[in-house]
Amino acid sequence: MAVNILTYLEQSALAYPDKPAVIDNELCYTYSELMERAKQIGSALCLKTAPRKPIPVFLEKSANTLALFFGIVYSGCFYVLIDPGQPKARVQKILETLQPELMISRLSLKEQTDSLEFDGALIYIEDLQNTPINDTVLNVIRSQTLDIDPLYGIFTSGSTGIPKGVVVSHRSVIDFMEYFTDIFHITNDDVIGNQAPFDFDVSVKDIYSAIKAGATLVIIPKKLFSIPMQLLDYLEEHHVTTLIWAVSALCVVTTLKGFTYKIPDSICKVMFSGEVMPVKHLNQWQAAYPDAMFVNLYGPTEITCNCTYHIIDRTYAPGDILPIGKAFPNEKVFLLNETNQLISESNTVGELCVSGTALALGYYGNWEQTNKAFVQNPLNTHYQETIYRTGDLAFYNDEGLLCFASRKDFQIKHMGHRIELGEIEAALDKLPEIVRSCCIYREEKNRIICFYEGSLDKKELATQLHQILPSYMVPNQFFQVEHMPITKNGKIDRNQLKRQL
Ligand code: AMP
Known about the structure:
Layout: H1 6-15, E1 20-23, E2 28-30, H2 31-45, E3 54-58, H3 63-74, E4 78-82, H4 88-98, E5 102-105, H5 110-114, E6 121-124, H6 135-144, E7 150-156, E8 164-169, H7 170-183, E9 191-194, H8 202-213, E10 216-219, H9 228-237, E11 242-246, H10 247-255, E12 269-273, H11 279-288, E13 293-298, E14 308-311, E15 323-327, E16 331-336, E17 342-343, E18 350-356, E19 362-363, H12 367-373, E20 374-376, E21 386-396, E22 402-407, E23 411-414, E24 417-420, H13 421-430, E25 434-442, E26 447-454, H14 458-468, E27 477-480, H15 494-499
Parallel strand pairs: 1-10, 3-4, 4-7, 5-6, 9-10, 9-11, 11-12, 12-13, 26-27
Antiparallel strand pairs: 1-2, 7-8, 8-19, 13-14, 14-15, 15-22, 16-17, 16-18, 18-21, 20-21, 21-22, 23-24, 25-26
Helix pairs in contact: 1-2, 1-8, 2-3, 7-8, 10-11
Bound molecules: adenosine monophosphate.
The site of adenosine monophosphate (AMP) has 17 residues, from strand 13, strand 21 and strand 22.
């Protein structure tokens, strides 16, 4: 088994040297070109830094960005993509946390990088062209790396307002990828259509499943996700077979009636994660692709992409709960109740906890948050067993499959009742006129607020909900929106909705 993800790149470069490894709007690298380019970058960088340091990449995603990632790994360091499109204050907080010695960007972003407070050296990608490959040095670095060394850092939002940098090791990604490509039959015949930003861990699945299998990664331009017709043309043109997308990205296609325009016939695997997939939208995808494999993937960044999966084996009715299924091999996923007892019976909600090799190394430079979330398994009093407490609530259905109930923060106490806001959203999903919905609780006012996209007027909606929900669960206020606001990671933007109140 590989101990460094570069083994995946090198094996694919050996097996498929001339095959396109990564394609963006401007560039295509074959496997041998990608490896050469990465080795050049690694040879240049290793002269400027010691191994195991974070190197931020202040760039948009592209084929070159991917070459930089691998170049950073050749230098023995780990990469952290910082999207230049995000607010300067957030970039500054990330840099404060990382205190990097080096940062990489491109000349055309000079104005932006010049405005950042940053003590390290700034390197432009243009300066990394054509450095000769120094195999001797790269081999020495490689011989000193461990599989527990960090591979990448991804910054999540963090409830304190300070972004937390989740650091993930080679070993965690390898452990996950070995099973992921195997279970979902990802092979060198696949073309993976990348939707997720490179600072969101959904992209980790795109990148490493492609590189491991010798498949082709096609980076889909972001702007196409608001123009489904062009998006579908693009998928067809590139013969994309595999979509590993955020739920909202799939919903854009169905909401804007993309399939009445065309159904690209190469797609055979559709996987989704990040939030609850509304059944109504899944049904439309299943109708368009009756022979495709559909998979609900669940998990937070801290456990390396996903810890559970469910291959959808039937159709569901709107309002039904799609299982998140069962644990990936070599991951232990279990539920704890409020007194830290194991839940094994069905239909009892508890916090979903995970242990295994796939657990991240923690939050970079943030011991307090790391120690809060990565804790000793309370069920194991004999030896050290770290678990990650996800803060998500789940339960087993009657078939023994795990089902996502809600975030712990979205479980509310309202009029004396414990309510999961997700249950109200599932009820809204049952109504054919509702396209998407999101419920928020205003604790100070004791009110459940429902935002929805769809054609029903508020009064009619309340009347219909009274027929399917107990009255204490019917939202107290409704807001009809033209489009649900979506975060850049493809989830419903609850903060933006709250700001409308
Ligand atoms: P992130 O770390 O940004 O990927 O967010 C992870 C969180 O997204 C999880 O803790 C869940 O709250 C939510 N999530 C991820 N996948 C699913 C899924 N398939 N169904 C419901 N919620 C999900």
